[in-house]
Amino acid sequence: MAHIIGGIGTSHVPTIGLAYDRKRQDDPAWAPLFEGYKPVAAWLAEKKPDVLLFFYNDHANSFFFDCYPTFSIGVSPQFDMADEGAGRRPLPSIRGHAGLAAHVTDCLVNEEFDMAVFQDRPLDHGCNSPLGLMWPHEPAWPGAILPIAINVLQYPLPTAQRCFKLGQAVRRAVQSFPDDLKVVVVGTGGLSHQIHGERTGFNDTDWDDEFLRLFVEAPHEMTALTHAELVRRGGAESAEVIMWLAMRGALTDEIRCVHQNQYLATTTNMAVTIYEQVEASGPPPAAPRPRPNAQLAGIEEIDGTYPFDVRASVKAVNLNRFFWRHREPAFRALVVDDLEAAFDESHLTPEERALVRKQDWLGLVRYGVSFFVLEKFARVLRVSNLQVYAIMRGESLEDFLKTRRVPESA
Asked: What is the pTM of this model?
């Protein structure tokens, strides 16, 4: 059974990553910051977690405001590092844990957290800025990441209380995962800072000290604060400490801080902390969930029905994207003129290519293709949806139409 072994709170200031890449660890201006991360790296090396579950925010690098989710979870088997305008950071891609991510997604949605699900979106400095200081990564990272993004850019933001409850639900989800995994939960952001308007440069280290004390001793006092109160106390962008509260919710009621470091160099009071749990204070681990999505219990008994879930989506993401791209005129033309080149561009496997060549509609659905992208391929082939329906039923179009109430509507 998976279990949470502790938590880390960390700032994710982009200049941390920039200073690291420029090898300024021993620079007097940066040494106090980097020294603060050495105990974190040592703690992780000792505990050897399999997964770091990150509560972070994307800074309009992988998501944009045309569709900016409140809560979203990454389910890919691998994540790249984002290019934020100055080139991709020189860090290797990092493994995801698609199995745990799918399980957590099922559990959270069944607890009425409306999660957006993302794949193949690179991780920006909300994750990668502190990550390189905590985990060795040459030639590869020692474990996997499970990223959960929280909107702290565009109001309305989720409340501090909602983020804490999200963390509690994540704890229940992780503990009900049947595989034996060690998970460390990371909350990122803050501490006090403001980087817009006439108040730019605001800090309040007294408030930061109080926040860190209450975080351990009385987190429910923190969850009662409004966004305006957080902004007043810590600066406009410090409201992102609600992501720390998500991490706090994922830990036991009683925790102890075993390491804490703060360093205010320019605009942000950069902090890093380690929290260990007082296990007896929390509820017992949740029972493993062989089917985390209770809403689908019994669906396997419904013949000829193939629910499109996160696991299918992850398995068939390239194939689903191949069909989804039929919305693009240039790609449609490539499919018609040189299907093999379209396969190559989409990185399809031999099995996936064979299914497309045979126009095996039922096989494609069984493989994990959503019908709502598959129908775009049918349009390119000049095949109607009704014809596809009939083929999947093993009937002629004429026989299928005989089963309809108003066949003339076709």
From this structure: 0.94
